Amino acid sequence: MNISIELFPPKTDKGREKMKAAVGELSQLKPEYVSVTYGAGGSTQEGTFSTVDWLVEQGIDTAPHLSCIGSSKDEIKEILQRYKDQGINRIVALRGDLPSGAGLGGLGDLNYANELVTFIRQEFDDHFRLEVAAYPEYHPQAQSSKADLANFKRKAEAGSDAAITQYFYNADAYFQFVDDCRQMDVTIPIIPGIMPITNYSQLARFSDACGAEIPRWIRKRLEDYDDDLESIRDFGADVVTAMCQRLLDGGAPGLHFYTMNQSAPSLEIARRLGIC
């Protein structure tokens, strides 16, 4: 079973120190790689580079996120060459978020993740292992479940090696998504994305924005705890651990933890699973 973790680029010196401490503690998981999120058009781009540089200096296998919206092919190629020169051989290839109110036109040379995957393969052959995104509960901008599955199939067939899902709290959604993909002859590994529950109001905002459903019974229990963060974390660890165990028992090839630059929540779930 493979474990991987995700970080975001800190914006302050305090945040950087917190992230570095978390990485040290998360090393107990022996992650296959550490991914780093990316903001297209420069919003967090420099933060991504500096975070990636530090991880590489520590000898940690690093998988930078790379989104294509808002960038030219030349800019994307320059970034990829930078990573290749650092010895990085894994990329999380994404479309990226559209600016509010914007359409696709005029936002760069590549509009979709499958186009980015194709471009990377054309320019760098098989140097990079490419992970793409998957949405068991479907992308919030998808016209239909059928259209979303077709989009995922295009990404896989363009040359992706594996996929990481958006987080979810319904294991059945993951298993159904995998079954649907296999019926379409999409055979790449699909790694569940795992988001520990530590703060209900923050989680609700994230989930509303990205289309990840928090089941009603979980919402109601979390609402009952109000500002009792300890109870929220204990309940969240119970719920997420049980889901992870079911995923692994059902054949999931690994777990990808969205750490939010914190170590304790992911480590608690891993301990309960007996994987650290």
Structural notes for this entry:
This protein is α/β, with parallel strands linked by helices and 276 residues long. It has one domain: TIM Barrel, CATH 3.20.20. 47% of the residues lie in helices and 15% in strands. The protein is built from ten helices and eight strands. It has an eight-stranded parallel β-barrel with strand order 1-2-3-4-5-6-7-8, surrounded by four helices. α1 (13-26) links the parallel β1 and β2 (34-36). α8 (216-225) runs antiparallel to α9 (229-249) and α9 (229-249) crosses α10. The longest helix has 21 residues, at 229-249. The radius of gyration is 18 Å and the shape is globular. The model has no long low-confidence stretch (mean pLDDT 93).
Q: Which key phrases capture this entry?
A:
single chain, 276 residues, alpha/beta, TIM Barrel, eight-stranded parallel β-barrel, 8 strands
Question: First CA to last CA: what distance?
Answer: 12 Å
**What is the CATH architecture assignment?**
Alpha-Beta Barrel
Overall structural domain count: 1
CATH topology: TIM Barrel
The whole-number mean of residue pLDDT values reads: 93
Q: What general outline do the C-alpha atoms trace?
A: globular
Number of strands: 8
Radius of gyration: 18 Å
Structural class: alpha/beta
Low-confidence stretches: none
Biggest sheet features:
8 strands, parallel, barrel
* Tally of separate helices: 10
